[in-house]
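[09:14] KT: can someone run the structure on this one? pasting the chain below
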Amino acid sequence: MLEAAGLRANIGRRVVVAGLDEAPVFTATWIRGEGELDAGAVETDAVDAALALLKHRPDIGVLLLECGNLPPYAAAVQQAAGIPVFDYTSMVEFFVGGLMRRPFTGLL
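[09:31] RB: done, C-alpha cells below
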C-alpha cells in the first residue's frame, strides 16, 4: 500500500499502519452499520487500539487517524497515548491557518 502511494520500499520500518477492524463497537457501527452510535464505546475502541499499537511499537512518535469517523476521539487518544495525534481536521486547520493569518497575540 505504501509503495503504491509512491513511498520508498523501506518506509515500512518507519510507518506503521494499524486498523480498527477488530475493534468491536467501531466495526459494528462504522463497518457493518449496526445499531446506534455509542460514542463512548467507539472512543474506548480508538484509545485501546492506539495503546496496543504503542505497546507493540513504543518508538512511535506521532499518530495519524486516517478514518474520517475518528476526529471526535483524537483528544482522548492523545491524552491516553501522550504523543501528538493528527487527523483530517488538524490538516484542514493547518491549511486554513495559512490562508487566513491573524495577528500574533501569543500562544493559546
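[09:33] KT: thanks! The helical segments are 24-31, 39-56, 74-81, 88-99.
[09:34] RB: yep, looked fine to me
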